[in-house]
Amino acid sequence: MLFHSTRDPSLTATLSEALQRGLAPDGGLYVPAGLPAMTPADFDGLGGIAGVAPRFLAPFFAGDPLEPELAAIVTEAFNFPVPTVRLKTADDVSVLELFHGPTSAFKDFGARFLAACMGRLTRGSPRTLTILVATSGDTGGAVAAAFHGRPGIEVVVLYPRGLVSPRQELQLTCWGGNVRSLSVDGTFDDCQRLVKAAFADPLLAARRELSSANSINVGRLLPQACYYVHASLEGFRRTGRKVNFIVPSGNLGNVLACVWARRVGLPIGELLLTFNANRTVPDYLASGEWQPRASVATLASAMDVGNPSNMERLRHLHPDWAELAGAVSAVSVSDEQIRRRIQRDDSVLGQVWCPHTATAAEAYAHLSPQRRAAGPWVLVATAHPAKFPETVEPLIGRVVPVPAALARLLELPRQVTEVPATLEALASVLR
Ligand SMILES: *Cc1c(COP(=O)(O)O)cnc(C)c1O
Prior knowledge:
Layout: E1 2-5, E2 12-14, H1 15-21, E3 30-32, H2 49-61, H3 70-77, E4 84-86, E5 93-97, H4 107-122, E6 129-134, H5 138-147, E7 153-160, H6 166-173, E8 179-185, H7 188-200, H8 202-207, E9 209-212, H9 218-239, E10 243-248, H10 253-264, E11 268-275, H11 280-287, H12 311-317, H13 321-327, E12 329-332, H14 335-349, H15 355-365, H16 369-373, E13 377-381, H17 389-396, H18 404-410, E14 417-420, H19 423-430
Parallel strand pairs: 5-13, 6-7, 6-9, 7-8, 8-14, 10-11, 10-13, 11-12
Antiparallel strand pairs: 1-2, 1-3, 4-5
The structure holds pyridoxal-5'-phosphate (PLP).
Pyridoxal-5'-phosphate (PLP) is lined by residues 105, 107, 137-138, 215, 248-254, 302-303, 356, 382-383.
């Protein structure tokens, strides 16, 4: 299959090229030239994410140099559990726990998959590949973890100083070796702008082989689609009905993967996107006017995005506003609602949410009884609550146990460079 730029269908790339370039040469984002058509029956006899992923991904890898490696890439990347856990309520609602990877957030799926692909593509290459990644908190840690120690690849992580949680920051700065962590004096949008500017800079591009690992890289979206394939088939086989998802959203990479899986033909029904106080998308769906703005800091910091990159892909798939507004719905959840939801679901359901997942739980709680009964519903749990103890622990009144993998990372020493939010500063680090 070929991929092409959202801005110009004549700018095509193979999967390998799209993975390595990140962004298309005209600044657009790579999208599949045509989505394949599949039905649930195509997955008969297959179960678990590692079971369904090779079948789902096969058409996207067809004809690419990576095609013979697909099975090995899936096995290497998806080496941790992806449980769906029923909530203790009368309705059919479960939690898709995407936080059992090495850095306890869903970003591990994309990062590990991309690393498995890139590791194979750069094998034997004389030039070092530099991966630039702007992070609002979780991407950078996942990418650093996935690429740390890989020969021929170095990683530069940019994160907004003071706007990530202390444990996220430890995960961003504990690596050393082939990973460099830059604490940027600015917001996530500044970090993202710097990465885009670096790609557009001919001098830098001549000196360095640059690639990106942000959710703009198509190599992160494809693996994310796999957990929607897995979870929707599980619910469909159990109930005979399409599965509705509630997805905590920021840059829209997670939900875009779900939109693609639905378009391919997986049994996915409603898609409800939840946002924090950064309400660019809910406002757009309500008004039809696209008004990106500066991000504001919230408790769900990994969703603090004012100008979500993947909107370009979503609008490419649904150019008509009314059609898009029919395809997905969106709500915005305040910090106060996040706090109350964490407290309430802990005491009533015995369920501890991270601040991001709490936005999905809050949206679910506000569905009408009829909509709730039209399940199965799946709340997408994007991070483990132990990543955000300063928010969660005072609300529930006890300590959240830290998963073993995360605990190991938190012990390592910090290595970080502070930089202003300018291209010159980034360029001098890259020199
Ligand atoms: C990145 C992230 C999100 C937002 O996902 P997008 O793909 O950017 O929409 C939500 N929750 C957590 C915990 C995240 O790390």
